[in-house]
Design brief:
globular; Rossmann fold; 2 domains; single chain; 13 helices
Length: 325
């Protein structure tokens, strides 16, 4: 039976600070480094979440969510739904806690991410994108038992993600804009909760691929919306078919909009990161840089682009960056 769903509410700074203390021994306080672009007038900094132990920001939220579970709930084992990164985060946290983990895995998940979840001890159950998306709304999946850890619509998961926002403000007090990918919305909600709670003048934008941009449609409509013409691409860690109404409630008032970029711009950003910073970013991880370089955001100060993950097959990565100049 699915757990009762709590009402949507803001994530407080006190919760975020408590999460930071709680997960300090699990996550890495990732560096913020300047992207050197020569004569470019844009001042862009990279928040390198690809350097987390699972190479994704998802460890922040997963570690906090699993740690916050009552002992009896944790002992039942945990499960989640994921295309790869959230699954790795929950599996990593479950392994630390000594409890079993099951991941209902979207069947378009890259083999690299699938193998990494399995290596962390997760039991994998494959399902279609639509079945997984529906299960995230219902919070249950046939034949899978244990305590469900929602990969984005969970107060504790979001509070863990939000710890990144505190680090950004501490490392770059002059930041004017922060950009992060929108997938389910847990990353952008967490970052915006921390940023707006401490520095309301800093703008926070999402970034989405042209093939899956329900966030941008939702901002245009002023309501949670579906993206018609959704396509699966190499940007597998961001961009859904729709924005969940509960997630729209969470971020509509604290996020300043979503920037849509092309697949070519995303590949070019991946190449730029490799050439200029020697950073390997997966497609979703490069969306923020593509958005920052697109000129679609006016900034009167530094822009921070969150490199949300770097889980990508190296052969695929090389092919993608070789296909653009």
């Amino acid at each position: 039976m699915a757990d009762a769903v709590t009402d949507v509410r803001p994530i407080s700074l006190a919760e975020i600070e408590a999460a930071r203390t709680r997960i300090a021994g699990t996550i890495t306080r990732t560096p913020l480094v300047k992207l050197e672009l020569g004569r470019s007038r844009r001042e862009i900094y990279l928040k390198l979440e690809n350097l987390q132990p699972i190479n994704s920001f998802k460890l922040r939220g997963a570690a906090n969510a699993v740690a916050k579970l009552a002992d009896s709930r944790r002992a039942e084992g945990v499960w989640t739904i994921s295309a790869g990164n959230a699954g790795q985060g929950v599996a990593f946290a479950a392994r630390q806690a000594g409890v079993p983990c099951t991941v209902v895995t979207i069947d378009t998940a890259p083999p690299t991410k699938v193998e990494r979840m399995r290596a962390l001890g997760a039991t994998l159950v494959k399902a279609s994108f639509d079945a997984c998306w529906e299960a995230m709304e219902r919070r249950e999946f046939p034949g899978v038992n244990g305590t469900f850890v929602h990969p984005f619509d969970d107060d504790d998961f979001i509070a863990g993600n939000a710890t990144m926002g505190l680090e950004i403000l501490e490392d770059l007090p002059s930041v004017a804009v922060v950009i992060a990918a929108i997938g389910g919305g847990g990353l952008i909600t967490g970052i915006a909760s921390a940023i707006k709670g401490r520095a309301a003048n800093v703008r926070v934008f999402g970034a989405e691929p042209e093939t899956a941009a329900p966030g941008a449609v939702s901002f245009a409509n002023g309501a949670a919306s579906t993206f018609d013409g959704w396509q699966a691409t190499f940007v597998d860690g961001a961009g859904g078919k729709s924005v969940f109404p509960r997630m729209w409630q969470r971020f509509a008032d604290i996020v300043d909009g979503s920037i849509v970029v092309s697949l070519e711009e995303t590949k070019r950003a991946m190449r730029t990161l490799a050439e200029k910073a020697r950073v390997i970013a997966e497609g979703a991880g490069a969306l923020s840089v593509a958005a920052a370089l697109s000129g679609k955001v006016d900034a009167d100060g530094p822009i921070v682009a969150v490199i949300s993950g770097g889980n990508i097959d190296l052969g695929t990565f090389c092919e993608l960056i070789a296909s653009v100049s």
